Automatic annotation (TrEMBL), chains A, B:
The keyword Translocase does not apply. Transmembrane segments: none annotated. It holds the Pfam family ADH_zinc_N. Residues 16-332 form the Enoyl reductase (ER) domain. This is NADP-dependent oxidoreductase. It comes from Auritidibacter ignavus. SMART domains: PKS_ER. It comes from the Bacteria. InterPro entries: ADH-like_C (IPR013149), ADH_N_2 (IPR041694), ER (IPR020843), GroES-like_sf (IPR011032), MDR_fam (IPR045010), NAD(P)-bd_dom_sf (IPR036291). Keywords: Oxidoreductase. GO terms for molecular function: oxidoreductase activity, acting on the CH-CH group of donors, NAD or NADP as acceptor.
């Protein structure tokens, strides 16, 4: 098949927020023949992730940075058009790291089939995708959630936070969410959060003291900065602080200050622990099964904010993530 | 017995370093009769601890602050002069929270006997006292030391650090110490540390990269600030960062910035955990026995810096701690 793909390439590493100089968007011909084990995929949806900002920095991290001149790394879902492996057949719906492109040839590594009877494609990038896995293993394994815990989630209306919070609720825990804006907070209450704090017009530190007078047992932090500090100041003894992300600092061109209140870890005999969801790869099926069951019995609402614009809409859609335009998972429709 | 004691009282909470306005030193008569279960102790040595600075702040912490008008809290060793309890007899040597005073009446709570055949009194405030317990449980329990670990200790020539480092060496681990000054570093090498970094004239971050190219598995931090950050930047995967103290920040009248590199916890799947040694109270005998055995077979050198001056020398002696005058445990002779 002769295919002209349109892809977004990394042209230049950004300082601060990515802008038009960061990207080059161009068409290119895909090879007409697949090699052994390859598949040709038509991409339908792309995942927009806070982690993408980190992948643009030329520093040692949990994955290599995207190189200048490479297609921007992205998870996506789509349809197999051609296959040179017995693992996939044309017509299969799949999920994988296809990059910011409308057509991709993949060697099949990390590609998994998705079942549209369970949920639509965008959900496989959200609650049933990497964000869902992140919420599940972060809360249960890293956070060691216990019955009766008071749980705090920052960026609670986001893709990861909304899953983590609802899983904690399903366990019967008291759950407090922090989000930006009345609308997001109203949604959190609607899906069962006990408290929703709007950081844009409430004082998070003192509000936490009110709503969690006995302190927080598990703090699942996606944000960093002053919100991390506010949580640290309100821990319960033996608390677990799960370091999932720090979206408030990702576009800071300097090294942002760390949590001033980290000595709370000593006062409260608490721990702060980081993780990378890829380490749980072998256990994804367990999480997918659990989350799918929660979706199907109504105890977990999977929500996505789908934006249009196709491949060429990627630069703007990515900025939307840092402006907090999304409730639930932010997905770009191709 | 009619006793006139001299004691140091907290007169005013300091901002920054304590000064002469912080303390009031005066004589007072002790009651002539002991109540049920009380003992009268002649204090011989007082422990000078970085934690003392925290006890002066009127904030919620792991122990209540010292109140204005109270005798300053301090651990000490001494001799029982009179006893109204079968637990102690006149002539017994004891250790306890007697306060900054030369004579104390104690209700016996937290007072334990010490054996001068095992070690002299100052050692019972150092390697066999709270600092030793702190090094032992911090390294083994909180740090979960494993065979083959590379261990980093900050304030390594101090009371806690020197015990923690030597325990790690005794376990066969590779141990790197950070200390201030050539003399302290020379001593660290003498007692078996594999590397000693003088933070006063070496770049800690880049030196760590050289001496621990595969990263640090356990980082026992007593210091905070830029040294904590340098360690965080050089962790190994799955590292444990033990938060024991933050002496670099204790006299900062504002809330000092936290560790900018805390996101290393995510990159390295590491954890940072605080603890308070008092929680291990029931297991002190285990640690005393282990450390005493190491002292006796020569695998652990217990060192103290004893300063004179008696009770009235306390204010100056305490400042010496923050200037780093001590190698090993800083003790005030009464």
């Amino acid at each position: 098949m002769s295919i002209t793909a349109t892809s977004v390439y990394l042209a230049q590493r950004p300082e601060g927020l990515p802008d038009e100089s960061t990207w080059e968007i161009r068409q290119h011909e895909l090879p007409t023949e697949l090699n052994e084990s390859e598949i040709l995929v038509k991409v339908n949806y792309l995942s927009l992730d806070p982690a993408m900002r980190g992948w643009l920095n030329d520093v040692r991290s949990y994955v290599p940075p995207v190189q200048i001149g490479e297609i921007m790394r992205a998870l996506g879902t789509g349809e197999v058009l051609e296959s040179n492996t017995p693992n996939f057949s044309p017509g299969d719906r799949v999920q994988g790291l296809f990059g910011v492109t409308d057509y991709a040839i993949s060697d099949g590594r990390g590609v998994t089939g998705i079942d549209l009877d369970v949920a639509a494609e965008p959900t496989w990038l959200g609650a049933l995708g990497m964000p869902g896995m992140t919420g599940y293993f972060g809360l249960l394994d890293v956070g060691e959630l216990q019955d009766g815990d008071t749980v705090l989630i920052s960026a609670a209306a986001g893709a990861v936070g909304s899953v983590a919070g609802q899983l904690a609720k399903a366990r019967g825990c008291r759950v407090i969410g922090i989000a930006g804006g009345e609308e997001k907070c109203a949604w959190l209450t609607e899906i069962g959060f006990d408290e929703a704090i709007n950081y844009k017009n409430e004082k998070v530190l003192s509000r936490l003291r009110e709503v969690a007078p006995d302190g927080i047992n598990v703090f699942f932090d996606n944000v960093g900065g002053t919100i991390l500090d506010a949580g640290l100041a309100n821990l319960a003894r033996g608390a677990r602080v799960v370091i999932c992300g720090a979206i408030s600092t990702y576009n800071d061109p300097t090294l942002a200050p760390g949590p001033s209140r980290y000595m709370s870890l000593l006062v409260f005999r608490a721990r702060m622990q980081g993780f990378v969801v890829f380490d749980y790869r072998d256990r994804y099926p367990e999480a997918v099964e659990a989350i799918a069951a929660h979706i199907s019995n109504g105890s977990l609402v999977a929500r996505e904010t789908v934006v249009g614009g196709g491949v060429r809409g990627f630069p703007e859609a990515l900025l939307g993530l840092f402006q907090g335009v999304n409730t639930g998972k932010l997905v770009l429709e191709i």
